[in-house]
Amino acid sequence: KHRSDQRTREAHYTNMHASWRLQLPALTNAYLTWKHNSSLNVAQTSAHKFQVTAVHVFELDYFHDITQQHEEVANVSLLHVGLLGCSPTAPTVAISLQCLELYHQLRRRQSSFSIQAFTKVLCAIHNVNYTQTFRDQFSITFNIYLTILRSVWSQVDMALGRTDPDWRLRHGCPPCTFEVSQPNECPLYPTSLKAMDGNNSAKHMANAGSADLRIFPSRYMIPPDQVDVFKDDIR
What we know:
The protein contains eight helices and four strands. With 235 residues, it is α+β, with helices and mostly antiparallel strands. The protein has a domain at 9-163. A four-stranded mixed sheet has the order 2-1-4-3. Strand 1 (48-55) and strand 2 (60-68) form a beta hairpin. Helix 4 crosses helix 5 (132-159).
């Protein structure tokens, strides 16, 4: 008899993201090791193997053997061979990092190219039927892939001394932050003037994604709680 999952979508996402968050430091180190082709000197005495379905751009391996060391997270073992799983605990499907990077660059150049469209392309290349499950698995893997990249960027910013929250504002765009310096010039008022579409696009998405409680760590956007401090100020 089939037993339905009684957990809400919000609870499911919360538990999943918490599990990924605990693994993030180890995943970041494993990704950097793979990225720079560093050799792994690990003992094989306590290792065991597990199998995943490995999805590459032009290859599909249903029974890909993965060597896992004692007390090593499964996704760390996958990252050592250039794969990333769709689950934080017991992944059965893994996407190649080259495939994830390809989609990442496609989205950066064409933001309307959806995950559904890309997974349908992969299914066509591999001559398999498209399923919503595969789309969801790819989405989970791609999200944690982006989280790993943001963790790497945070380490780079820390090494370069860019930890100040206002660093991007002060150094991001010299023309936008230019201030009058000549004695015969009048100060600009307002100092900076911004305009947008009145948030019409954002209003359509106001109720979307309410089950995901994560906050995107942007280096450009200011968190809503900091903006709301000035909501009653009128000039």
